Records
---
Amino acid sequence: MATTPPVPTFEERVALHAALAEPHRLAICDALALSDRSPSELAVLLNIATNLLAHHLLVLSEAGLIETVASDGDRRRRYVRLRDAARAVVAPSTLRPASVLFVCTQNSARSQFALALWRRTSTVPADSAGTHPADRVHAEARRTARRHGLDLSGAIPHAIDPASSPDLVVTVCDEANEELRDGVGTQRIHWSIPDPARTREPRSFELAWDAVASRVAMLTEAISA
């Protein structure tokens, strides 16, 4: 079950506002509102020199607004993502996709969570797929979804259809994101969510569910804004 983040102290709020008062740093947070990005992607997107970007990322990290995580795929690669403290102050871009495709490697947990949650909250057509689909949805993923009132008993993993042309592709897996870097989709969003099947523990699946649920909520809000 998702928990409510603690309310920041006065001193923490001062640090948050001080960090966001600089235009580049606010732009970085806005760029991370819907998608995790590598530092090199941020530098290109925002036209910021890498040494200046590194300074801004350090300030944002010390203020508790962002975190940098190693890729589950290419361990040399890093992704920058927002922390909960920043989500109330960012202004995500408005999107108008006609269709959405959620992708992970095996299409057996994270992308299935995303699709089920999406269909519960949005009328925009969506599907899910895997770059290397498993034979079946993970049993613990089905149990996790059931605890949250969603039924994955009829879900079947399948591969990405090369003939499909979704408006928006959302990768919920680092390996899939890196494999599809120049592939399918007119628009791309990435959520760096660890693979819960690596530990097979119920808590790992609950953490993955919570991470997907919060991202789906922000994305549906951006699309309906």
---
Amino acid sequence: MTAPGRFIVLEGIDGAGKSSQVGPLARWLEARGRAVTVCRDPGSTPAGDAIRAILLDRREIHLAPTAEMLLYMAARAQLVGEVVRPALARGSWVVSDRFLPANVVYQGHAGGLDPDTIRALGAIATGGLEPDLVLLLDVDLDTAARRLDRPLDKLENRGDDFRARLRAGYLAEATRDPARFAVIDAAADEGTVAERLRAAIGARFPELR
């Protein structure tokens, strides 16, 4: 019988460094004998990539907050059905760059929609699937801003007040669900942050130590 896979999600404000940690984390898991599937939310399916372009890249398209939130849900539903659940069923560990917590924080805590409503809709979009572990890379706003040395997407361009609400929202979500979240100090260099991520995973899954 195939051993169950695990579902790990990296979250954090823009500039926290989560995207740069996904690859090294996947390779670390593979070195410990785990099959690994890497994905990003939104994206990683043809439908999800098309939705991602609307959400993040096409600046001329104005979206109402509820429309934006529902597009994320549509991309996530496709991601779960096409990628995440099949990978977990075959025993693969899934490492995702963002998942439902990002929706709750970006469109909820920071964007003004009701977080509980977003969670309820998220349960429908994902069929109730939740991560086994959410690694929240927490970083101060000044450090995050210095790291964003590239053209910014729609969400990254919303200003300092929005980013402050994002960080506060993520920390509130971690406080709300401490059994699922691990908060990682991500202000250090990439190598140190990678070590902290591995330590948090080892604490949650002792078989990986």
---
Amino acid sequence: MSEPTRIDESVSALVRGAQAGDEAAFERLVQRHYGQIHRWALARTGDRDDADDVTQEVLVRLHRHLARFDGRSQFTTWLYQVTRSAAADLHRKSARRDRLTVKLKQEPVPASHDPREGHDAADEKRATGLVRTFLEELSERQREVFDLCDLQGFGAVEVSAMLKMEPVTVRSHLFRARKAIRKKILESCPELVEGYGD
């Protein structure tokens, strides 16, 4: 029996044990792959602190979702996808403020003098903070669709391919996300929400 085969069988045994609730097997599985996960995370983020955060998130997801691994691919292939997803989520969260600020700055500026002009920067900051706060209250799918469509600028068809769902489903999630955020901002600061999400 070759060395790679023995390693594969050893990992498979640990996975089966962890899926069955054996915490010791789970710990050994983590010990075996921790360095690999961290290297992948560092390659995806380019920052050691971010890589640490991604690695911890991967371990949480691994504990929660290991049952989803069905053995049809190599465990490391599945684990890489989990790491890639966690890194992408971190990137979206850390970049969300910048994207939202850019989006808000793209709004048309009235040609006539606005007596509230001096408050624009403060209002923009408040709106950014509110949207960021309320995003966390959306469902994971709505948050993901809103981020991709409204913050990153992808079209519904592109997002449907990325998330493997029908375009009509993407639009439905986006509509609900916009409606929910608009409602929450309207309840908190009605002066900031005029025209938002129409």
